[in-house]
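Same chain as my last thread, 426 residues:
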Amino acid sequence: MSIPIPNNIKTMSGTTQPKKKLFTSSDGKNYAVVFILLCTLFLLWGFSMGLIDVLNKHFQEALHISKAKSAFVQLAYYLGYFVMAIPAGLMAKKHGYKTGIIVGLILVALGALWAVPATRIGIFYIFLIGLFVIACGLSILETVANPYTTVLGPPETGAVRINLAQSCNAIGQILGPLVGGQLMLSATVGETVDSSHLALPYIGIAILVIILIVFFCFFKIPNIKAFDETVSKRKKDRPFWRKKHFIFAVVAQFFYMVAQTGIFSFFINYAVDNLKNYSDRDAAELLSIGGLGLFLAGRLIGSYVLKKTVAHKTLAFYGIANTLLMLIVIFCSGWLGVIGLLGSFFFMSIMYPTIFSLGIYGLGEQTRHASSYIVMTLVGGTFVVVMGYIADITNIQIGFIVPLICFFIVFIYAVFWKKLESSDVI
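reply #2:
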């Protein structure tokens, strides 16, 4: 049975379609400028996410806390995604994309500015309040922006646009630990760690966000509906929560976020433990330039690969590749283990947007609401506490059994996606 794909026919099925401009709609309107503005949002939340991976190590050194307790940075951050994702989807459905973007940006600005008094107070949990508010804002932005990129041009190139936008997210994730490592991990006074510069990157975020709020307030953001939304009303369709390919996409995305957050959060710990004479700052630079550089390269290369291959099969290959790489990370040491960990960044690169596009495939008018549930799976990042606990009672290498299990679950979803989707066809 052939599978029709609404967003990127060539990506999913491998069939050739007539060439169309990437950002031009069927009625001739060009949305390239809107797409560029959206890309700034992807860059923003990538940078914010990259910063928290450095915060993890900073608080371990500054406050002399365990890996499990420092992982509460991720707990606060991803809890914000969990709390706000569904309200964000309902807001986008009722008030449109522009309102959602502006509300999200306001919350990000408020959370970023909170870093100023939180740094002066100097209490770990007070700082987490700001991270939670930032995450609530980013949850709204991500719920709105991911599906919005897919409608800014021909339906069959939607998956290409979301991967391109996610490449900007990867750039932000490179800049986050690079900037954060310079401002946080290198600041020491005697035997103590200086936290006076902790608020600086967040002040920068607040300034950027305020500028973006002005742009989005005065720039016309069209409330475009996906092609599926215009045609699905003509036929009866089962609710998205009864579609197996969507339900298991939520499960797969949850476990993917556990894996990604664990690898990002404890890369610095792993590199310092396995490489002689490697400082926290050196490891942060390796994470930024090496790991997240490969992550960005994987996104860009993946955008091309997905145009030539079948998406769920490509996801399956990447899933099993990362499962095997985690075995190297766990059982090898030194540079071999670090190289295995670096390689995982490349194969992680396409997983989030690909699982996202496979999950919302064929949902029509339910897409925006359903998207919020997939975004909500970022709460999987809070389970990095489990990985930190395992690392504390054993060692950091054994802790990577958590992402190994998660990548295998992503592999299983990809292998059975076609069967799951076929069973959903009425």
